[in-house]
Specification:
By secondary structure, this protein is of the alpha/beta class. It has two domains: 2-129, Rossmann fold; 140-210, Arc Repressor Mutant, subunit A (Orthogonal Bundle). The chain contains ten helices and six strands. Helix 2 runs parallel beside helix 3, helix 7 (151-161) packs across helix 9 and helix 7 crosses helix 10. The protein is globular, with a radius of gyration of 17 Å.
């Protein structure tokens, strides 16, 4: 299910998705239609712009959080025209369930990366646009639990924030998966994450809140 008020981008996304083998059950131009069609079609994944009619503010984001509350099994991928870091925690902290992602619209132009991110979200993963992560790093704070992380642990946490697996992180940093697992363990310990939580997602959320 696709929601995007720009007809040109909407049709372009439909073409990209269908050529990649995805079935687009509906493509709409506003948040109200998105909510109505989700209840009717029960899609596996929703891709939605953040700013859409009727108010052209954060209607798409609010629709996404409503969908996650009512249908937690549906994966959500939201698109934004620019880096808006404030939206990320709100999206990730919505009712848990299926995968969730936040990408800049420019990422759609990198078709392979866009489709890879979509696949990760569809499989239940968390994906944050690398440009958003870089923005957070640029204003990184050095107080609180994050101050205890080494530079390498910060690198690993940044890649975790993008939703990358240990294998992908190992490839990016040119280290072994065992080394990545050790760094991840250190991050969990230093952030003092409680037992019984999805610790990887909790680590990402702690990073996004405190970076």
């Amino acid at each position: 299910m696709l929601a995007e008020d720009s007809a040109l981008l909407r049709e372009g996304l439909v073409g990209i998705l269908e050529r990649a083998g995805h079935q687009v059950v509906a493509a709409v131009g506003d948040a109200d239609a998105l909510l109505a069609y989700v209840d009717r079609e029960q899609p596996e994944v929703v891709i939605t712009d953040i700013r859409m009619p009727p108010t052209h503010t954060d209607d798409g984001l609010r629709a996404a959080t409503t969908i996650r509350a009512a249908h937690p099994e549906i994966a959500i991928l939201v698109l934004s025209a620019y880096v808006a870091e404030a939206y990320v925690p709100e999206l990730l902290e919505s009712t848990s369930g299926g995968g969730v992602g936040y990408l800049l619209k420019d990422r759609v132009g990198h078709v392979r990366d866009f489709l890879s991110s979509l696949d990760r979200v569809a499989e239940g993963g968390t994906v944050i646009d690398p440009d958003v992560v870089r923005g957070l790093l640029a204003r990184r704070r050095d107080d609180g639990p994050l101050a205890n992380l080494t530079d390498r642990e910060r690198d690993v946490l940044a890649l975790m924030a993008e939703g990358r697996t240990n294998r992908s992180i190992a490839e990016m940093l040119v280290v072994s998966e065992a080394a990545v697992r050790k760094h991840v363990g250190n991050i969990f310990a230093k952030l003092a994450l409680p037992d019984g939580t999805d610790r990887r997602v909790s680590a990402v959320l702690a990073y996004l809140r405190r970076a």
